[in-house]
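Lab notebook, page 48
Experiment: co-folding of the full assembly
Goal: obtain a model of how the components sit together before planning crosslinking
Operator: M.T.
Materials (sequences as entered):
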Amino acid sequence: MRIAVDGYGGDYSPTEVVKGALAALEQDKDIEILLTGKREELVALAGEHDRLIIRDAREVIGCDEVPTVAVRTKKESSLVVALDAVKDGEADGLVSAGSTGAVLIGATLKIGRVKGVERPALAPALPTVTGGNVILCDCGANVDCRPTYLVGFARMAVAYQKGVFGLENPRVGLLNNGAEETKGNAFSVECHGLLKNAKGINFIGNVEARDILSGEVDVVVADGFDGNVALKSAEGTANAVFSLLKQGIYAGGTRAKLGALMLKPVFKGLKRKLDYNEHGGAAFLGLKKPVVKAHGSSKAKSICGAILQVRDMIAGGVSERLAADLQKDVQND
Amino acid sequence: MRIAVDGYGGDYSPTEVVKGALAALEQDKDIEILLTGKREELVALAGEHDRLIIRDAREVIGCDEVPTVAVRTKKESSLVVALDAVKDGEADGLVSAGSTGAVLIGATLKIGRVKGVERPALAPALPTVTGGNVILCDCGANVDCRPTYLVGFARMAVAYQKGVFGLENPRVGLLNNGAEETKGNAFSVECHGLLKNAKGINFIGNVEARDILSGEVDVVVADGFDGNVALKSAEGTANAVFSLLKQGIYAGGTRAKLGALMLKPVFKGLKRKLDYNEHGGAAFLGLKKPVVKAHGSSKAKSICGAILQVRDMIAGGVSERLAADLQKDVQND
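Observation: model returned without errors.
Model output:
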């Protein structure tokens, strides 16, 4: 198995990307990595490694560039060269911490959608309070969705849960502003009807944003605008809680400071658990080959996590499962 | 100043509502409360109090009733009788912990909108990390909004910030999935243009959901569906953090448990700070008289908080400010 890694994507590239790639090679002796970017710089950073293939790419796509233009014109960029390697069958999946727009557009164009997929979507796996995870799909790749897209998001995320996390019959919920069937805006009411009648989806109904992490649902589908709001509100709140906690400890005197010291490992574990970026990135689902978009601020640990995440998606046959499910469900309809 | 309180709204009514009302009368010797519900029960709970007026109301509107029907047919309900008191000028504002739908519809019908308000909206004040608060408007009273509604939400929330919290020129942001002006769905792009050009609004641009609590914005406007997702995702995450923290402490052995014990006051303060319901409820803005919807699970403390919140809205002239602002801005346009 070979994984393409965009060597010049992300705020801390190429240094942290190289470190992350080496860490992944260390953790899994069965994978190979195809790393793209300025050869001399990458060689200087990585040294020699028999499972690390360096492919020269002289250009870099910045986060301020128009994605469609950048992907089309910068054919020698680290991202496009990595995508081409996947397209040509030289690699089985891809990781990039670069411009989200460029990764989404480039991957859709170069790697292509699984037959039957209307729109690929971004889908992070978030930790639940019961120790599992929930896939939130879509989180921002598509805004102004048609209701039918969300049925596709459900199938894609279900294939991901089955392939990577081994769930047999993932429970699918629709993000809504109330639990009752009649709740919501015109869009969510229409989505509810479609999901309820879709074959092969274990639809459990509407899910309020406060219950996403409850552990009572395995997949939550949403328009990318709403999914993005839910995800970022969760991130912002987690940060706010830690920030207020710190203020409270500071104001709480010696006793509070001592207590905080004793709880340090617990706080650290909690922070790690909540930060899904630390484990990898957001899967970009619906493509013929797995793609993971790591956070722009990823350091070595996150890059390594993202590489192992793509490995799991390849090994779990996420794309193949989706293709088979779509084939089957279309025949059943 | 007299405040009408729905004595039979909320999961713990009438007992906790009565307790909350008495606590508010104790805290502020200048207010009177007009409490509605079954007279004999309320008298038994409250005893005699010279600033507590009990008005008999024999019916109760349940949370499972269709709001429009309930408000129209249950004229003798505790909610409708309280609304009538406001409508007739016997009270200056209202608190209810009852059915959200019935409160919104009843208040809009009975109390009426300020001239120029397209849609009243629900607007909780959330604590920011810098010690202030941010008004999130709308949080669920209106879904499928027209872009013009959001300009109104901004004016309403600005009048609230000015009147109650004393801000001179509140910064207004638009909830969006990216900070750049061109980001968002078709709706948010249109809203952005309207807000940018609206007179008398200090519009600072798009705000991502992760930055709502940052303290860098005083008012965040959104379609009620999106605002609801942001609010509930924040609630759910705060709960998840506490739940995971508890698990971590439990698993962390004696040292962690001792640390937690020492941090107990800090945790308690943090929880209280994050739970905006503990301080009151969500203001229902845009009406001729202030209305606060307390959470259905409110106990005495929250009811008391909501009553004092309505008092502040009356004292701060929130409705009058809004009326004046709308008059002025319409003339300027």
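Interpretation: Chain A touches chain B through 59 residues (CB under 8 Å).
Next step: discuss with group before ordering constructs.
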